[in-house]
């Protein structure tokens, strides 16, 4: 396993290149006004259309892209969070391109495919909503949203046991961990709360977790994922640890440690371990920070680890 940081803005000629998402060796890259999907190990490449009928997508306004399965599959669907808090869908094998869907009030904070279905996390203070999108369309067909279902709605103050309705939440993430849909809530500079989705006959709710058990968690604006880690750790990564990239530009902690220098000379740091305690349990977190102008860290996790 490898983890690292990269400058997600690079220039090739007069065109700006942005890396949006990376996992299992696959990266979605915006370059010259196009979205390309490239595998860093096999160098396989898929170029996606930017238009479909009256629908269009501005690649520069995409904040995150996820894959439903391996992009080499004809049935793979890409889902993206884009401008105006819209969800955009595109079938990799479809020449008909992107479709767009709004989902009401509130900010779209994260998206994830879980058991082949698309879930969207929406923050509309003081509420956090988990929405499930029904999608139609297979190989060579247009991907369309057919239904939007509210899976669970929680009040953030109630969920976090906070008395203040304007609770300080920096960001939220969703991802799969141990075959469970899981949410991470960052409530302060270094403080994370973790919740797993529990679905029973009579209720659906987020239940708080106090341990990652055999997993290490990587969090960032372009990629969030949980990886199972052996007891002795691997490549410096340890189980029951959270590794996160700071999403606030230019914020560097005073007790930082030097990590690496970017090609343009700007420096990336990592923070000392922070002990996160809740209900007498401990989860260690470690943050990665860049000087102003350096994009948030991006995690590189090889396939089949």
UniProtKB/TrEMBL annotation:
Pfam families the record matches: Beta-prop_KIB1-4
InterPro entries, sorted: KIB1-4_b-propeller (IPR005174)
Residues annotated as domain KIB1-4 beta-propeller: 15-255
The record's annotation in PANTHER family points to: DUF295 DOMAIN-CONTAINING PROTEIN, F-BOX/KELCH-REPEAT PROTEIN-RELATED
Write down what this protein is called: KIB1-4 beta-propeller domain-containing protein
Q: Which species does this protein come from?
A: Aegilops tauschii
What is the phylogenetic placement of the source species in the record?
Eukaryota, Viridiplantae, Streptophyta, Embryophyta, Tracheophyta
């Amino acid at each position: 396993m490898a983890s690292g940081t990269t400058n997600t803005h690079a220039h090739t000629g007069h065109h700006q290149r942005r890396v949006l998402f990376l996992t299992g060796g696959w990266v979605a890259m915006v370059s010259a006004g196009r979205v390309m999907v490239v595998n860093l190990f096999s160098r396989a490449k898929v170029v996606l259309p930017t238009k479909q009928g009256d629908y269009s997508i501005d690649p520069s306004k995409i904040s995150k892209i996820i894959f439903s399965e391996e992009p080499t599959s004809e049935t793979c669907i890409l889902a993206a969070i884009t401008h105006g808090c819209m969800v955009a869908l595109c079938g990799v094998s479809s020449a008909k391109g992107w479709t767009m869907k709004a989902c009401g009030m509130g900010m779209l904070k994260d998206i994830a495919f879980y058991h082949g279905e698309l879930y969207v996390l929406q923050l509309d203070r003081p509420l956090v909503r988990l929405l499930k999108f029904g999608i139609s369309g297979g190989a060579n067909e247009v991907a369309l949203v057919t239904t939007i279902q509210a899976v669970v709605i929680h009040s953030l103050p109630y969920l976090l046991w906070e008395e203040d309705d304007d609770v300080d939440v920096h960001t939220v993430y969703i991802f799969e961990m141990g075959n469970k849909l899981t949410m991470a809530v960052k409530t302060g500079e270094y403080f994370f709360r973790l919740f797993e989705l529990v679905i029973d006959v009579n209720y659906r709710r987020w239940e708080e977790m106090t341990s990652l058990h055999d997993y290490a968690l990587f969090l960032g604006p372009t990629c969030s994922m949980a990886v199972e880690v052996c007891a002795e750790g691997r490549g410096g990564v340890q189980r029951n640890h959270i590794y996160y990239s700071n999403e606030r530009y230019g914020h560097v902690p005073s007790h930082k440690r030097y990590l690496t220098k970017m090609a343009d000379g700007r420096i990336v740091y990592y923070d000392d371990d922070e002990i996160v305690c809740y209900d007498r349990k401990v989860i260690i977190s470690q943050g990665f920070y860049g000087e102003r102008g350096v994009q948030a860290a991006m995690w590189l996790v090889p396939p089949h680890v």
